[in-house]
Write a structure and sequence with these properties.
Order of helices and strands: HHHH
Pfam family, one: bHLH_ILI
Strand content: under 5%
GO molecular function, one term: protein dimerization activity
Number of strands: 0
Keywords: Growth regulation, Transcription, Transcription regulation
Number of domains: 1
Protein name: Transcription factor ILI5-like isoform X1
InterPro entries: bHLH_dom, HLH_DNA-bd_sf, PRE
Length: 86
């Protein structure tokens, strides 16, 4: 086994940056005419991930509140439980 690490070529980095740019909402809105720098794109990615975490936390809180107010034997509660098990 070699102790050398394989190196990523500049072409592979550019391809990965392109793929990342294609999945970020902000980058898609800008279109392909303006290519973002790798640094800016990584910052956008971090911000997007943070916003997704906040959204998950908010939805979790809302679900907890909903479950707390729901009659545990109701049909609605059973539907929610079955969705959570999926």
């Amino acid at each position: 086994m070699s102790s050398r690490r394989s190196r990523i070529t500049e072409e592979e980095i550019n391809e990965l940056i392109s793929k990342l740019q294609s999945i970020l909402p902000e980058s898609r809105r800008r279109g392909t005419s303006r290519q973002a720098s790798a640094s800016k794109l990584l910052k956008e990615t971090c911000n997007y991930i943070k916003s997704l975490h906040r959204e998950v936390d908010d939805l979790s809180d809302r679900l907890s509140d909903l479950l707390a107010t729901m009659d545990t034997n109701s049909a609605h509660a059973e539907i929610v439980r079955s969705l959570l098990r999926s």
